[in-house]
Design brief:
By secondary structure, the chain is mostly beta strands. The chain has one domain: Immunoglobulin-like, CATH 2.60.40.2020. It has one helix at about 1-20; strands at about 30-35, 40-45, 55-60, 65-70, 85-90, 95-105, 115-120. The protein has a four-stranded mixed β-sheet, with no helix packed on it. A hairpin with an 8-residue loop joins β6 and β7. Residues about 5-30 have low confidence and may be disordered.
């Protein structure tokens, strides 16, 4: 049974890599307008935990604070269903910056997917 699950997870990962990883963001795809000191979210489809892949955020800490991040389990009970990885950021000063979200295994140096979000931070 475990062998079958590993095989299914591998096939799903391969299909998502070839056909693309679905992604979304709270305020629009790849461009986010945020308000100073008001949290915003980026939600990304997360790979099955057994594959070892997860999203990490690369950003300028002078502009943004990562308030918290968490994993939401899939609503579907179907085998192989993907959950969501959610990141909540707080803008620290007005202006423009970016966030690079990288999908990779922690022990690997290169990402299988990178999403870049342009962030415009407005004053209150």
């Amino acid at each position: 049974m475990i062998q079958h699950l590993k095989l299914l997870a591998g096939l799903l990962f391969l299909a998502l890599t070839v056909f693309g990883w679905p992604h979304s963001s709270y305020a629009g795809e790849h461009e986010i307008t945020a308000i100073l000191k008001q949290p915003f979210r980026i939600e990304l489809t997360a790979a099955i935990g057994s594959t070892g892949y997860s999203w990490s955020a690369q950003f300028d800490k002078a502009w943004l604070k990562l308030e918290k991040s968490w994993y939401e389990k899939p609503e579907s009970k179907l085998l192989g269903a993907s959950g969501k990885q959610v990141f909540m950021f707080v803008p620290l000063k007005p202006g423009n910056t970016k966030i690079e979200m990288r999908l990779k295994r922690p022990w690997e140096s290169s990402a299988v997917k990178t999403n870049v979000y342009q962030i415009s931070i407005l004053p209150r």
